[in-house]
Amino acid sequence: MSTTVSQTYMFGSPCDSRPRAQRRPVLVLGVGNVLRSDEGVGVHVVEAMREVLLPGDAEVFDGGTAGLDLLDVISDRRKVIVIDAVQAEHEPGSILRLRPEDLGPDMTDSLSLHEAGFMSALRAAVLLSAGPDEVVLFGVRPKEVGWGLKLSDALAAQVPRIIDLVLAELGGGVLKRSVDPMVPANRKDGMS
Predict the structure, then answer these.
(1) 3-state SS, residue 17
(2) Which terminus of the chain, N or C, has fewer Cβ atoms within 10 Å?
(3) pLDDT tens-digit map of 165-180
(4) What is the pLDDT averaged over residues 79-96?
(5) Residue 123's CB: how many other CB atoms inside 10 A?
(6) What secondary structure letter does DSSP report for 86?
(7) What gap in Å lies between CA 70 and CA 149, rounded to an integer?
(8) Are 27 and 77 in contact (CB under 8 A)?
(9) 144: burial class by Cβ within 10 Å (0-12, 13-18, 19+)?
C-alpha cells in the first residue's frame, strides 16, 4: 500500500479562511511562545517539520500563542496532534503523550504555560459541537522558559524524536533531510 505524501504548511495568522471542505482532516499544531526559549518547543517542531513530506490527509500549523483564536483552526478535524511545552513532574526534555481526558474532566490549561491555551480552544470547540474527533498532545517538559529565542540543548536534542513520534502518530511521512534543531527552519546557514 503506497502512502500519498504532500506538503501543506500554514504559518502566520491563526485564522484559516479556507472553507472547511478544503482543509485536510488531520492537523499537526505547534503552539508556544518562541520568545521564551523552551516554551516555544511546539513552534520549533512544526518549523522543523517543513523538511517532512506528510501523508496526504495531514497539514501543519504554527499556532504560536493564539489560544482561543485556534478555535476555527481545530474545529471539525478528524484528528489534531498538538506539540506544546507542559508543566510536569518529569525531567526536562521528557516527552509525554497525552489525551484531553488525561488532563481531567474540565480540560483546563493547567499544564500549559500559556494563559488561555489550546485546551481553552478545544473546550470551546467541543461546546460548539465542532471538536476534533481525536486529539493527541505531545507535551514536552521545558528546561528554560526565560527570555530567549533558542531551545535549550535538552529540548533541541529532542526535536527529531518529537518529529518521529508525530510521524508515527500520522502513520507515515518522509523526512527530506536530517533536522538540525539548532538552526531555525528558515536559516540553513546557521546564521540567526
Answers:
(1) coil
(2) N
(3) 999 999 876 666 555 5
(4) 91
(5) 19
(6) B
(7) 23
(8) yes
(9) middle
Backbone angles phi, psi at 119, to 5 degrees: -65, -30
CA distance 123 to 25: 19
Q: Going along the chain, which residue ranges are E strands?
A: 5-6, 9-10, 26-31, 52-55, 58-64, 79-85, 95-98, 134-140, 174-175
CB atoms within 10 A of CB 125: 22
Domain-wise residue ranges, the chain: 25-169
Among candidates 189, 181, 187, 133, which has minimal Cα distance to 30? 181
- If pLDDT is split at 50, 70 and 90, which confidence band does 27 have? very high
Residues in the chain: 192
Secondary structure (3-state) at 136: strand
User: Phi and psi at residue 23, in whole multiples of 5°?
Assistant: -80, 150
Instruction: Name 192's Cβ contacts closer than 8 Å, sequence gap at least 6.
Output: 149, 150, 184
Residue 119 CA to residue 40 CA, distance in Å, equals 17
Architecture label for domain 25-169:
3-Layer(aba) Sandwich (3.40)
